[in-house]
Write a structure and sequence with these properties.
Blueprint: H1 2-21, E1 61-66, H2 83-93, E2 101-106, H3 115-118, E3 122-128, E4 132-138, H4 142-159, E5 166-167, E6 170-174, E7 179-184, H5 191-211, E8 225-230, E9 242-246, E10 250-254, H6 259-270, E11 281-286
Parallel strand pairs: 1-2, 7-8
Antiparallel strand pairs: 1-3, 3-4, 4-6, 5-6, 7-9, 9-10, 10-11
Helix pairs in contact: 5-6
Length: 292
């Protein structure tokens, strides 16, 4: 019985890796860094048994709302009269894309010089995987701006043309980043994420400083890699969840990650051409590279 189960597990792993390798390359390097001394507390219990491949759905568009926070109320986008809530409502009624459209709050900073931003009435919106910022979007204009902008972004990417520079008077600004990495830190939803995310970020930022790709808040130098926190993404029992957007077109969602995986993820996945390890993959996608 045991040998049969082991054989079945190996067969499923081989099939999984073959499928993943048709989308992104598999890494030949170890997924763990032997020099990493940072570890999760023993109180953090992670599901190490379940096969996590395809445990999350592909993403078509991901709206990222800056809040400057690392934790939020349980339903982070439900607060009325906020940009995140208006985007959420737009997602539910839009007909441009059938599935894979979502909105998240993040630790990215908002414009603290604008009093309206504190109330959530005005905010910048990052649109991934398009690496586009909508600057100072107003609450009353969310639906009309997104109705006009999203089809244009889809068309611009497909035709390798430049995106619009403004929509209805709002500035549309390409991001200089090479990659955004998001770590679920939503402690209110699950304490594990509040513990694992800061430790993962610490190790990732440490490595990015070594490679010269670390970017602090306000540093817009090109080709940077930003590691930020994000609200609930699902699958907390698979913490740490790591969602990676690359300007080269890959969207890579890893899970069951530990601090010892941080350096290999930066070297192999983020800076090494999107290479992954099959047992850490929840979802992988490969689209057309962003040329702006």
């Amino acid at each position: 019985m045991l040998s049969s189960l082991i054989s079945k597990f190996k067969d499923s792993s081989v099939k999984r890796d073959e499928e993943i390798s048709q989308i992104v390359p598999l890494s030949d390097c170890s997924k763990e860094c032997d020099d990493c001394s940072t570890k999760f507390p023993s109180s953090v219990k992670i599901d190490d048994i379940t096969n996590i491949y395809k445990s999350s759905k592909p993403t078509q568009i991901h709206f990222i709302i800056p809040t400057g926070k690392s934790d939020w109320e349980s339903d982070a986008t439900s607060t009325p009269n906020t940009i995140e809530n208006e985007v959420s409502k737009w997602i539910n009624k839009q007909t441009i894309l059938e599935d894979g459209v979502k909105v998240s709050t993040s630790s990215l900073p908002f414009d603290s010089t604008d009093p309206r931003s504190y109330k959530g009435e005005v905010n910048d919106v990052l649109i991934l995987p398009y690496f586009i910022w909508v600057k100072k979007l107003e609450l009353s204009k969310v639906s009309s701006v997104l109705d006009e902008l999203i089809p244009l972004l889809i068309k611009s990417r497909e035709s390798s043309s430049s995106p619009p520079s403004e929509i209805q008077g709002f500035k549309i600004e390409p991001s200089n980043a090479f990659s955004y990495i998001f770590l679920c830190s939503h402690k209110t939803r699950d304490k594990r994420c509040g513990v694992t995310a800061p430790l993962m970020k610490k190790e990732m930022d440490f490595r990015l400083r070594d490679t010269g790709h670390y970017r602090d808040i306000g540093d817009d130098n090109p080709n940077g890699v930003y590691v930020q926190y994000i609200n609930h993404v699902g699958g907390h029992k698979y913490a740490a969840n790591v969602i990676i957007y690359l300007k080269t077109g890959e969207i890579i969602w890893l899970a069951k990650c530990t601090p010892s995986n941080a350096k290999p993820i930066i070297d192999e996945t983020v800076l090494g051409g999107g290479k992954v390890w099959g047992d850490l993959v929840r979802c992988v996608q490969k689209g057309k590279a962003i040329e702006w």
